[in-house]
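Kindly go through the following sequence and its backbone structure tokens. Advise at your convenience whether the structure tokens fit the sequence:

___
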Amino acid sequence: MSAIRLVTVAVAAIAGVAGVGPALAHHSTAAFDTTQVVKIEGTITQFRWINPHASIKIDGGAGHGLWTIEMTAPNVLINDGWTRDALQPGDKVTIYANPLRNAVTLNDGSTGGLYVGVVLANGSTLGRTDGKGAGTSN
């Protein structure tokens, strides 16, 4: 192998490995306690069907307060049965989520969580609704 080709291959390999770190960091669930599942019964105040992650805001009332639930990408959610209109503001639902490891209040006053499952207003379910499991943000 020529020296120029060897250098080109080495640079390409280093660039490829360097790009993996940010990608893995972005898709990490390390901020969430995936050993705990919180059940939040409440009213949907917002459902954002956007890349790179969809999200849900749910008002759990006096029992749980306002939560922001991070989800995975819409193209992954579609494979799990989700649609862009699965949730509407005002829907009464039950969300199952992994809470943040360090309880912090987000800028909007909500608590953060990672989606595990939901019981929709019509009684149908998406994701895990048995009170177990870990969410994913891939």
